[in-house]
Write a structure and sequence with these properties.
It is a single chain. It is globular, with a radius of gyration of 21 Å. It is an alpha/beta fold and 449 residues long.
Length: 449
Amino acid sequence: MGNLIITNALIIAMTERASFNGFVRVRDGAIAEVGAGAPPETAKNEEMLDGSGCVLMPGLVNAHTHLYQVLLRAVWEDLELMPWLKRIYGCARVLTPEHFYRGSLLGCLESIRGGVTTVCEHNFLNPSPECALETIRAMRDAGLRSVFARTIMDSGEIVPECTKETPEQAFRLIEALLARHKNSQQLTFMTGPNTPPINTTPDLLREVRRFADANSLGISAHVAESRSVVEAVRRQHGKSGVVEFLHQFGIPAKNSIFAHSVHVSQDEIGILKETGSSVSHNPVSNMMLGDGVAPVVEMLRQGVNVALGTDGAASNHSQDLFDTMKAASLLQKVQHQDAGVIKPYDVLCMATIGGARALGLNSLCGTIEVGKRADLILVDIDTVHNQPINDIFSQIVHCAKASDVRTVMIDGAIVMRDRQLAGLDDKKILADAKLANRDLLERVSGLAF
């Protein structure tokens, strides 16, 4: 991990709504200096990285995904959440650790090429302990900053028996993961109930909060993604909403991130604000499955921290967070029939510092500040579809594409330079993923859903 200076870039630090031409000095993986104009001096051992024609900004944070699902792009189309979930869950009967590794590594590759430096992998299918291990191996091999949310299911009609666990069984496996990776700076862990209440019991919810607190873990959960989930909580537990239901078990908290949160009431948004809970907004996935539109503007107005996620490629088709930013912006404008209801800078915050806060990583990444780890991307804006530049924040959100990302740095290490990957054989990764896809679909063809 060498020392370098990135110069001649248009810097978006995400510490305020401003940009400036300047430089960033990186030493030992951390941001050592940020300044306007040219660096005052350079050392002989410092590498110079020219950012001319590029925006230098924090790496994007994908706050909710399922990486292996790139193997299932466009397999089940035109389905609402519950019938779609029946098929996704059913895959557990034939998924192998190799599927998880090869699919997750391709998902990591796509993420890096699109400027994502941090992912939260929400893991919920565990037919064997090796499946989680292989997903983690893929993220580590790719060099991503990663949060592995190892979640639990203990009930549910559509949940295969091979993935149902008692809290005690799941906790033993999670403790083994924590012990195995306790010295990793780039890998942290969360736990949680997968999709309450359709696959988790009240007993599990109580135990998850206790276990999370005892081990200083955050909680990740799918929350109120569709009306059907809200109807289930009303029918089964007599509560008006999923957030209200979870509140009685202490699940909403500062270290909790709730994916989707499409069908939440104003009172429940108040609970999110009061408890300091974060939301991962997944607009493309929500549109693909016909779930609805999350009340993001209302959450932001009440001070709820909102992050962005792609969700898995089985319900999104990609891991493209630039695509997700644009969708998040335009969807709120349409929903409110108000072109000014959400600002591009706020959307960019969701994809950077908002995601870092949600995952408990805001002391490490999410902004360009001295002392933070150097998770940085250079985005080429000297392109036909980006020029001329008039409002850089709007144009990053609405014009820029994942393919505009030129260089990616994670923890001070350059993992992609001028679109060329360092240390990853993209051709082999793709070939291996194609073989895994073929094998998985052959196995899935024999399942009855």
